[in-house]
């Protein structure tokens, strides 16, 4: 059945009754606005979107995976401020010839991630569009604490990451090489199948370590964001906001490089490009003052080295001139 065969009310009735309601959701879908509790009279909020054929392809990803992906990237933004997510609002534009099942799968994917995070899917909007366009707006609670901004890092701070690097980029390379579905991976050497399956899954629907954001805030993180556009690009954002320079340690980065090395060789890809510039793993990239014990899931990858400048180094050399994803242009650092 196509969406054009249903009225808007009938389409909404296919999924709205099954949407999750979080503890902070006082009034959900059905009125002109949802009502969300804000216990400390403040909330963090962010929005993100996905556009078909720019951010995802229907021949690569299911509606369920796209829904999970949209939820994950919004939940990660909230976590990167050190906040506990509370509610999500979703807008969806779809073409008339889209299968109703795709919409139901999409909302099921979002609902799964929201339930896992204890978040209510509080409402949104539904419209027609030439291609699928989906956006979500998240709110989060800081429980009276201060948010962790990008601007708090300083020389001497430790740079650490919770989550994965390079896996989503590896998954993209797999899809581009024709390894799109799990069954396609059986043509790979057996030794590569597990890491390939993991990378493909993360590319289609990232699995950010959401609770690590609050853990980092509670541990005393000085700056934080989630890695959505690549390690170098996002670390540079911290450096620019904090007016400090950063040095990554190639030995410490082996933790992320070595598991992907053989897969990259098989695909004739650059594993360092995956790890340094590949985005959408949505791991938590944070800085911590020297002497602060790192939370369990954080792995040290470098340090902030000099205030007043915004340079990036890999060991003692300037970092490679790759900056990760940009929607409107490709850049290299001079």
TrEMBL record:
The keyword ATP-binding applies. Mg(2+) 2 binds at residues 48, 77. Signal peptide: none annotated. Mg(2+) 1 binds at residues 47-48, 125. ATP binds at residues 124-125, 150, 228. Keywords: ATP-binding, Kinase, Magnesium, Metal-binding, Nucleotide-binding, Thiamine biosynthesis, Transferase. The keyword RNA-binding does not apply. InterPro entries: PurM-like_C_sf, PurM-like_N, PurM-like_N_sf, ThiL-like. It catalyses: thiamine phosphate + ATP = thiamine diphosphate + ADP. It is an enzyme of class 2 (transferase). Its EC number is 2.7.4.16. Pathway: Cofactor biosynthesis; thiamine diphosphate biosynthesis; thiamine diphosphate from thiamine phosphate: step 1/1. One of its GO terms (molecular function) is magnesium ion binding. GO terms for biological process: thiamine biosynthetic process; thiamine diphosphate biosynthetic process. Substrate binds at residues 55, 280, 325. Residues 30-140 form the PurM-like N-terminal domain. Mg(2+) 5 binds at residue 229. It holds the Pfam family AIRS. Mg(2+) 3 binds at residues 32, 77, 226. Reaction mechanism of ThiL seems to utilize a direct, inline transfer of the gamma-phosphate of ATP to TMP rather than a phosphorylated enzyme intermediate. Belongs to the thiamine-monophosphate kinase family. Catalyzes the ATP-dependent phosphorylation of thiamine-monophosphate (TMP) to form thiamine-pyrophosphate (TPP), the active form of vitamin B1. PANTHER family: THIAMINE-MONOPHOSPHATE KINASE. This is Thiamine-monophosphate kinase. It comes from Boudabousia marimammalium.
